[in-house]
Here is the input.
Amino acid sequence: MAFEDLKQTLAQYLDEDALLSIEKAYELAKKAHGTQTRFSGEPYITHPVAVAQILADMRMDPESIMAALMHDVIEDTEVTKEDLSKQFGPHVADLVDGVTKLAQISFESRVVAQAENFRKMLLAMVKDIRVIIIKLADRLHNMRTIGALPPAKRHRIAHETLEIYAPIANRIGMHAVYIELEDLCFAALNPLRYALLKKAVVKARGHRKQMVTHIQEAIKECLLRATFTDFKVIGRQKHIYSIYKKMRQKHLSFNDIMDVYAFRIIVATEDDCYRCLGLVHHLYKPVPGRFKDYIAIPKNNSYQSLHTTLFGPHGVPIEVQIRTKQMNKIAQSGIAAHWRYKSPGSQFDKVQMRTRAWLMNLLEIQQETGSSLEFIENVKIDLFPDAVYVFTPKGKIIELPAKSTPVDFAYAVHTDVGNHCIASRVNRHLVPLSTPLSNGQTIEIITDAKTHPNPTWLNFVVSGKARSSIRSYIKDQKQDEMVAFGERLIEAALGQLSISLEELPAESLENFLATLELSSMNEVYESIGRGERNSLLVARQLAQTLDEKYKTSASITSQVLSIKGTEGVLIKFAKCCWPIPGDPIVGILLPDEGMMVHYEACKKIASARKKDNLIRVEWETNSQHEYEARLDVELENRRGVLAELSVAIASTDADIDRIHSDNIDGRFACITFIVGVHDRTHLAHIIRNLRKVNKVLKITRVH
Ligand code: MN
Here is the structure.
């Protein structure tokens, strides 16, 4: 029986007391799941027992084993978190709660539910990393038994596992789980290809056996001669999915990949690693440029090893990894090794610290991102395994996702450094902020307190941290503008009712806020600026809270919103009717974007006009801003005419923003100019100048 097997494994490393508690947890889970079955028809309890077995094989602690046995009871049975807390203590209850999904009801779609659940798990993981270890074991068993599920569900789960859980397993160094998950996903998503590749691999291994033994013996002999006693030389096999990935990403053939012979040498001490490296470099010539020292600079998941590639017998490439036993344990089980080999101050503690640092980084990203979908996107980027290692001017190593830029670096140092960076030096040379960084460079960031993040940075930053910080800055920025804009809209709307915002008594504002259940006028302004509330309606509501005596018509001068042209992103000018100062104009609110200003007679806004959705606006007198206007010029084609037209426009000090020309039939052409002008007088000046150009037939301003 499965639980008996589990007990046997546990007895190898846990004491009587622990075993008793675990048995209690098992009894509770068994009773709670009762007659529930899995898709395969087996009793449900077989699943939590199998998950606990996976963790027991990793030598995880008793609390994790108990939580694994009960991991589905909150979600699928009547048992509550409080019940668990009372019987098994708060830690076990928190662990189970951490892997429990949120109630399904409240989500608009499965993707959102997935993202929200992931966010919840992550927060639990920050408190206790064992949550993700249990979740991974759960996922591993589900993937091992995925064949029982209907195809659509199989596909969805395999996909999610490949995108999120396998990379997380890799990120926290649980290598064995990682490769098993990847192969199981590959087999579930692409069964034919998986079967073919697997067959080919088995066949190739048969052919290679002789060569493998030959190289293995040569290395052993060489180490023995150098008086090594405590070591192992292992022939290494790539997992199926990694072969598939290599074939696809590097466009290699199956034979190209299988022609590489891979070995792992495990020795006693770090010194031995370097000594061993020298020996194998002496045995076979190393391939230049392929040596990597992950002992001095561990990978982000704490992986340590020396990597080198050699020219073997007959020139066959040999890949060698050299590491100590301890490094090997971490390479296999990563953070999970921490519970198995508790020894303060050891490498295992460092694994723990690095994992914490990663979680803290995720937490920061999550605090800066609004939606859980955006968050999960950022996490996926950060899980991308390739990294570059660069240095601060003081020599501190900073690890970034591959293709990171100085902006990513700046945000990795500190959010404030990122927000205010204006330039960067790489190895003492000034480079653009968008330059991709390479390993080993020293990066210096030049900041200026007065500058702000530039939205165009989003086009080149790669780290989740930089991306989420820049987005959050832009969002805050836009929010301030929305508030200011909403305030102007409400002022104008009140003006139409002969009320001034400044003169409204505080008491009536408070009453008004209470009826809306909002806490500040800024929230009201923001919702108006965003187009969620109509300024006229709000103004009328406000007016109703007033006594007659406050309506002082005399103090109101302007009843409409005036446009300066410098409002920024919130006021846009329509590209159908190209309004400029002097034109009669109206505004239309676009939800969440601000206001679009149209020429009053523009046909595009006919439907809004019917519904009375337009806002009265007017131009601010003497605005110095430039506005785009469109002129269509019909003329007889001749050489040099475009240059003459351009000169005619430029002589009025106007900018030509765009030109587009249509040959009508070879003899005639229509040229469209988008010109930057101050107002109608300026435009009239341009039209007069254009008329003077020879062979111009017709000039139309397009509304
Ligand atoms: Mn489960």
